[in-house]
Amino acid sequence: MSSENKMWDEAKSQYLHQVEKALASVKNSRKKEVLDDVRSHLERRFGELGPEQQSWENIQKIITDMGPPTDYAELMDTEKRPEKEKLSLSFVGAAIIIFAILAGLMIIFPLIYHPEEQEYELQEMGSGTLSHPFSNDLEILGEWESVDFVEFLNDFQPETRRWDGDLFLKRIIFMAEGRTSKPWTWTKGWIYDNDDNIKAEYKIKEMAGHTYLFFPWLSGDVTIRGMKPSYYVLKKTVDKEVFEITDFDAAVQDFNIRPDDEGGLYNAIVTIVNKGTKTLPEFRLNFYRGEPAKNLNLLGKRQTGSHGAGPIEPDEVWRASSSPFALNEGLNVISVVIDIDNAVKEADESNNSAELKILVENGKIIEQSSFH
Predict the structure, then answer these.
(1) 309 φψ region: left (φ > 0), alpha (ψ -120 to 50), beta (else)
(2) What pLDDT sits at residue 317?
(3) Are 298 and 305 a contacting pair, CB within 8 Å?
(4) What is the pLDDT, as a whole number, of residue 84?
(5) Mean pLDDT of each 10-residue bin along the chain, 372 residues long
(6) What is the CATH number of domain 245-368?
(7) pLDDT score of 179
(8) 272 burial class (0-12, 13-18, 19+ CB within 10 angstroms)?
(9) What is the dihedral of CA 96, 100, 101, 107, to 10 degrees?
(10) What is the 3-class SS of the chain, one letter each residue?
(11) What local confidence, expressed as pLDDT, does residue 251 receive?
(12) What predicted TM-score, i.e. pTM, was given to this entire model?
């Protein structure tokens, strides 16, 4: 089993366990049916990913798109309520309650209305690239760590965490020129999703002596169904002044291939070392057949995905493995490039790639170069 499939099985099992735990609180004969449907949907979503798309980032996106596990219990609880319970009030009694609620809302609405809740804006970009004028925002530069996940901006209270599940987005670093340690880019006030050609507003607030970023989570509900996004709430942990180019240096320490558990196939393995003095933020890498400029994956098809790596502490290493692939008769050139988006500005950018040349005759490797 590949490392990607192991990651998927672990993430899927954890999510299904959370759904099953949530459903245990509901008395409904369809609980097993719902759990089976969730499992089937997860498998279908993962099966739609190509081998080079089966990264941790895409696995997280699938899980997040499914929504909070408690939603399934709430839905079934609503379905279970008998009609006599729903209609137990008389028409007159119901009317009295409705008028009382309306009157109360007229009194308290000005007190609870928060204009910033309405400032949200989501815009689809034109087809093609997400080229846009860049405007700097010194406030957002630096490292942020997730502390909560909320539906509305005003739901967040620093002393009380609302989200009781795992926070899939752990941390993110915003760097100069609109770069981040994740696949997104930014300009002042906006987060750009390059894959789905869409942008959404972010907010920064000072609360209880700390700086918080409200990061719009552009899940499938947003990019596909057009719904309003929920927000990751992140607390600033490292300010912009700490990040200097000389602090970072990711380097390929070793690059090789090894036989896969499936007979006749191989995995490319890269070892990345942090030669800098600061923790390397997350970045992306890719394996290629031939020269990287041709943009072919190890199956010889156009590259469509990428692998995640990091964070990496100083002097520590990170190992990443490709999906299984076959070697062709004759000369095989296998390459790897780390930090493919140039998300991390480094002291040395010349050590971010490596290449292997492997000669195969009659299905056997007869010569293999050391990586360079």
Answers:
(1) beta
(2) 93
(3) no
(4) 39
(5) 71 83 78 79 76 74 74 60 41 45 47 42 44 81 92 92 87 83 85 78 93 88 75 87 64 93 89 89 91 92 86 91 93 94 80 94 90 67
(6) 2.60.40.10
(7) 81
(8) buried
(9) 160
(10) CCHHHHHHHHHHHHHHHHHHHHHCCCCCCCHHHHHHHHHHHHHHHHHCCCHHHCCHHHHHHHHHHCCCCHHHHHHHHHHHCCHHHHCCCCHHHHHHHHHHHHHHHHHHHHHHCCHHHHCCCEEECCCCCCCCCCCCCCCCCEEEEEEEEECCHHHCECCECCCCCCCCCCEEEECHHHCECCCCEEECCEEEECCCCEEEECEEEEECCEEEEEEECCCHHHHCCCCCCCEEEEEEEEEHHHCCHHHCCEEEEEEEEEECCCCCCEEEEEEEEECCCCCECCEEEEEEECCHHHCECCCCCECCCCEEECCECCCCEEEEECCCECCCCEEEEEEEEECCCCCCCCCCCCCCEEEEEEEEECCEEEEECCCC
(11) 92
(12) 0.44
Distances (CA, A) of 209 to 146, 161, 213, 271, 330: 17, 17, 13, 40, 64
Tokens describing residue 256: 């090789």
Contacts of 32 (CB under 8 A, 6+ apart): none
Distance in angstroms (rounded) separating the CA atoms of residues 196 and 184: 10
CB atoms within 10 A of CB 297: 21
Q: Residue 93: what pLDDT?
A: 47
Contact indicator for 333, 289 with CB cutoff of 8 Å? yes
pLDDT of residue 99: 44
| Alpha carbons 249 and 53: distance in angstroms, whole number | 26
From 242, 128, 132, select the one nearest 177 (Cα to Cα): 132
